[in-house]
Amino acid sequence: MEKQSEEQAAAEPADSGGEGGPPQVAGAQAARPEDRMTLLLRLRAQTKQQLLEYNSMVDANEERTPEQIIQEKQIEAKIEELEKEIEEVKVAFEMKKLALDRMQLSTALKKNLEKMDIKTSALMDNMKQILNLNKLIMKLQQETWDLEEKLLDVRKKRLQLKQASESKLLEIQTEKNKQKGDLDSMENSDKIKNIQQNLQKEIQITTVIQHVFQNLILGSKVNWAEDSALKEMVLQLEKNLTMIQ
Amino acid sequence: MSVLRPLDKLPGLNTATILLVGTDDVLLQQLAGSMLKEDCASELKVHLAKSLPLPSNVNRPRIDLIVFVVNLHSQHSLRNVEESLHHVDASFFLGKVSFLATGAGQESHCSVHRNTVVKLAHTYRSPLLFCDLEVEGFRTTMAQRLVRMLQICAGHVPGVSALNLLSLLRSTENPSLEDL
Q1: Among residues 83-112 of chain B, which lie with CB inside 8 Å of chain A?
Q2: Minimal CB count within 10 Å: which of A13, A166, B68, B71?
Q3: In whole angstroms, what is the distance from residue B97 CA to residue B178 CA?
Q4: What is the DSSP code (8-state) at residue B88?
Q5: Where is the composition biased (Low complexity) (chain A) (predicted)?
């Protein structure tokens, strides 16, 4: 359901017949006298603006179909290009709007400051508070930065120590391996074999000599238990020399 | 005509037409009355409608601005507005549509949450105005705003178009970059 209500809120334009008489007043409205020149100029401005709007709509609704058949990939590439353009325009527009807002704010602020008493206004208090907070923020940021630097130094030192200990351990390990290698090689060398053979020979010779002496003493039927020096010697001859090896 | 199109008719000379859509007859009448009392150099025409689509047999002038009035006290008005939105052409939403939420003052009676209306306005990229239409002073102020908006949307203000106004009215709470 629709209802209509119409009222003329302004002076009716004078007839084109050129009467130029006093403007008509509708209802209880106060008359706004407007002479014909002003009215015509205003109408001209209106019509211009409306024409602009219609033109821009017509331009916006124009569809340009491509003449040749373009491949799908190229179409996709074109679509991406267009989307990028749209995004760039949007961003640029946002930036401009921000700049405009800032300018409006600064002029309003300037006008306000000119009017108000500078020393006792809440605005100045706010601004002083803002300045103090900013100083505090900067100081704290500086402190944070310093602490972070220190932390970074400590971490660097720790890393260096770790690396040094790693290299040291590596050295120790290589040394151990070298020692083991040397030991193994030594055991298999010929020199040792010769020495071992000589040792065996000497032990055999000494054992034979021991037995000879033992038999000599026993054969002489001397009572060796009585003499302590002889007892010692006999006991020593009992020593089995193969155990030395 | 089942769909309202913004520029399908030629504008009347020195005329600006506003369409108020809402379920609360009384409030709309009061708002229309306040608007017509405003001082304006152009002729104002106020059309009231409960819902769209408008009957096509009536000869009406080109509509320059549509204001959808949602009463926060009733779900019915919100649903009515949502259904009416389907009958508006997309090109209308380039600055020639506005949402007006009324009744936000009495929090206890509100059955529609404020955020619902905010989201609705955001979906349609149109400005949202809040006003308690029952209070005389607020109504007069809102009428002044609407008259100014109507003049711009009808093209009576040189140098400012409806689209310009739309981008100026975007508040910093819902920046347009969100749509990226």
Answers
A1: 91
A2: A166
A3: 20
A4: B
A5: 22-31
CB atoms within 10 A of CB B55: 10
Query: Can you read off the two tokens belonging to residue B67?
Result: 């204001």
Nearest CB to B54; choose among A2, A9, A13: A2
Does B47 contact A at CB distance below 8 Å?
A: yes
pLDDT value of position A9: 37
Amino acid at A222: V
Between A52 and A15, residue with greater pLDDT: A52
Q: What six digits make up the tokens of B4?
A: 């309202």
Contacts of B42 in chain A (CB under 8 A): 10, 46
Is the Cβ–Cβ distance between A105 and A113 less than 8 Å? no
Say if CB B99 and CB B93 are below 8 A apart: no
What tokens were used for A231? 């007892």
In this prediction the ipTM stands at: 0.79
Cα dihedral value A51, A55, A58, A59, nearest 10: -170
- Rounded CA-CA distance A158/A152 in Å is 10
